Amino acid sequence: VVQEKPPEPTPTPMDQPVEAAPPPPDAPSEPTVGDSALTAREGAGPSNYGLARGDGSGTRIGGRPGGGDGGFGAYGELARREVTQAVQGERDLSRGRYSAQLAVTVDAEGRITSVRLLRGTGDARRDAALQRALTGLKLSRRPPDGLPVMRIELNARSGA
User: Fold this and answer.
1) CA within 20 to 30 Å of 36's CA: 44, 54, 128, 135, which one?
2) 129 CB-near residues (< 8 Å, 6+ apart)
3) Which CATH architecture has domain 72-157?
4) Nearest-CA neighbor of 92 among 62, 126, 61, 121?
């Protein structure tokens, strides 16, 4: 086994001032739930990776449990899958190539109460059929409290 020697550090020119990094913040004696997100020591500027300032001791990638969005992202994905399945089950909607962007409102029981076209399919009959097929659709789960209007993108790619 050959071990490579790490590269030598480059010396800092003496004519450039060197700023000392601030000491890391005191870590809490007992970690709290949600406080183990990956963190990085404060550096030269904001992180492009969404890392919060911390002491580098975090262990979790992806932010707070549930995405920090109250479960809205997971529910949105469930709604997108079930809306897509409902559309695929409709003969008039399962044929052809089209895309649409919808604003969907769901009640506390998981029933779609409103479907508004943000970007239609380009076919008024198909747009109306989408609204009819999805309004009143009961999703398999209740939404999390405070769910905002969801944006759902549909892309149909049927060869017929």
Assistant:
1) 44
2) 90, 92, 93
3) 2-Layer Sandwich (3.30)
4) 126
Tokens of 104: 């969907």
98: three-class secondary structure by DSSP: strand
Question: Is 129 within 8 Å of 102 (Cβ atoms)?
Answer: no
Residue 97 dihedral angles phi and psi, to the nearest 5°: -115, 125
Centre a 10 Å sphere on the Cβ of residue 137 and count the other Cβ atoms it contains: 19
Q: Minimal CA–CA distance to 86: which of 126, 128, 133?
A: 133
Length of the chain: 160
DSSP 72: H
Residue 24 corresponds to which amino acid? P
